[in-house]
């Protein structure tokens, strides 16, 4: 299981400090929610912040592009230190060239699906991706309530993964806490983005360890 705290819930005046906190907490990934104020009604941060936090986080930088024109951002984020880049299936005809471009830059490829979008829209791409991100809130803001109706999409993605003999990770993002992480793990998720539920704890390592242990137990019940 991978726990990926979201920098969106960090102290915006101290990104490096909070990235180092996440590193010390032992989280496998640091999730960076990039928002362009067009694909989603909010603006967060760009490549300069990824470059700033890179020296403070020793493991995987997981960049989630909630952007209408990610093609102009891929190289800047790779240069800034991104290890994985996820784009949205809602971009339609742009998706295939985007996945190819991320792959050509030598990075892991992710595809995200918003709550209203049918999970079937992701099916044609499953053999081309390393990660499927099933959004469990409508993107744009942290601290939103988990959308239960997204859980069947996780089940369906896990079923296709098994049926097609693929090994992409299933990531969930939005309203993830210990309870919803267990529910998503039971459905087949293995990668958990959490902001509010983790950063509110003074002891971030204990919070990360607890979420990972609960998700791992719930996921092992699947086997
Ligand atoms: C939505 C964002 C959030 C964030 C985590 O666009 O992607 O899902 O990562 O939010 P919370 O605070 O719900 O964990
Ligand atoms: Zn995200």
Q: Secondary-structure blueprint of this entry?
A:
Blueprint: E1 2-5, H1 15-24, E2 29-35, H2 47-53, E3 60-66, H3 74-80, E4 84-88, H4 95-104, E5 108-113, E6 131-135, H5 151-163, E7 169-173, H6 178-187, E8 191-194, H7 196-199, H8 204-220
Parallel strand pairs: 1-8, 2-3, 3-4, 4-5, 5-6, 6-7, 7-8
This protein binds D-xylitol-5-phosphate (DX5) and zinc ion.
Question: Which tags fit this structure?
Answer:
binds D-xylitol-5-phosphate, single chain, 8-stranded parallel sheet, alpha/beta, binds zinc ion, globular, 223 residues, 8 helices, TIM Barrel
Number of domains: 1
CATH fold field value: TIM Barrel
For the biggest sheet, the summary is: 8 strands, parallel
- Structural class label: alpha/beta
Number of helices: 8
Overall pLDDT: 97
Low-confidence runs of at least 5 consecutive residues = none
Spatial sequence of strands, sheet with the most strands: 1-8-7-6-5-4-3-2
For the secondary structure, the number of strands is 8
Per CATH, the superfamily is Aldolase class I
Quote the beta fraction: 15-25%
Second-tier CATH architecture: Alpha-Beta Barrel
CATH class: Alpha Beta
> What overall geometry do the principal axes of the alpha carbons give?
globular
Ligands bound here? D-xylitol-5-phosphate, zinc ion
How would you spell out the order of helices and strands?
EHEHEHEHEEHEHEHH
Q: Quaternary arrangement of the chains shown?
A: single chain
């Amino acid at each position: 299981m991978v726990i990926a705290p979201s920098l969106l819930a960090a102290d915006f005046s101290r990104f490096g400090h909070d990235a180092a906190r996440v590193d010390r907490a032992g989280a496998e990934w640091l999730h960076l929610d990039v928002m362009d104020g067009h694909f989603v009604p909010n603006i967060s941060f760009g490549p300069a912040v990824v470059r700033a936090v890179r020296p403070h986080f020793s493991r995987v930088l997981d960049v989630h592009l909630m952007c209408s024109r990610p093609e102009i951002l891929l190289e800047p984020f790779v240069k800034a230190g991104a290890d994985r880049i996820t784009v949205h299936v809602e971009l339609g005809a742009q998706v295939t060239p985007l996945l190819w471009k991320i792959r050509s830059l030598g990075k892991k490829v992710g595809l995200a699906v918003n709550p209203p979008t049918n999970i079937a829209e992701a099916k044609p791409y499953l053999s081309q991706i390393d990660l499927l991100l099933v959004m469990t809130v409508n993107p744009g803001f942290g601290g939103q309530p988990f959308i239960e109706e997204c859980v069947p999409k996780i089940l369906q993605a896990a079923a296709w993964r098994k049926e097609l003999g693929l090994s992409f990770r299933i990531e969930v993002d939005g309203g993830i806490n210990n309870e919803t992480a267990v529910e998503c793990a039971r459905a087949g998720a293995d990668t958990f983005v959490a902001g509010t539920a983790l950063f509110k704890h003074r002891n971030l390592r204990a919070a990360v360890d607890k979420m990972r242990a609960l998700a791992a137990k719930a996921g092992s019940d699947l086997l």
